[in-house]
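Example record for the data management plan.
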Amino acid sequence: MVQGSVAIGRVVAAMDDERAAWSRDDGLGVFCDVYRRVTALVALRVTDGTFTDPAFVEDLDVRFASLFLDVPRDLAARREVSRAWAPVVERRATRGIWPVQFALAGMNAHINHDLALALVETCEARGLAPTSPGVHADFERVNDVLAEVVRPVRQSFLDEHVVRVGAPLSPLADLVSSFSIDKARDAAWAQALVLWNVRDLGFVAAAARDALARTVGLVGRQLLTVVS
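Corresponding structural encoding:
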């Protein structure tokens, strides 16, 4: 049972339902395992005074998670998935790709693409702007929550690789070390500001979202390069 936010707890339950249908090594499932830990921790943090506006963070987290859950829903309905998520979906069962690569490729899609969209949606729904007092500060505090989970998990993935193949300076280690969660969130904030300022411009807004999805998808393909 997830402690803290009831709304986020329901999201975690939905993740569990989806995860139950995937194999242990499924690429989407590998990311889901990491993301579930982060989401469960956010559920706790929104009730312990970590955030200035916990209601905003809770709303943001639910919308953010829903964008990930759209991926299996789209697959089940035989709809095209977001271009940002396409590499993970296409290569989720490819041999020679390590679990840490799927974890990072999922983070790339979810943070660099989904987070910007979720932030804009949340601000619109709550009558705020990204520049409203407290919004950016709470956004930054989420970095600390991510660090509590993601950095130890990433290191454990790397340690497993090093032990199994005895290659601390292997191409996989180089690939993993090049991806920064903090920088990804900084980029997501910048993208959210762009999307916010063009949100009422019709074609321009659609083009900006499409360009973002394509760019994030390209990075995802690089992260999912077969290295063994």
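Summary line stored alongside the record: The radius of gyration is 17 Å.
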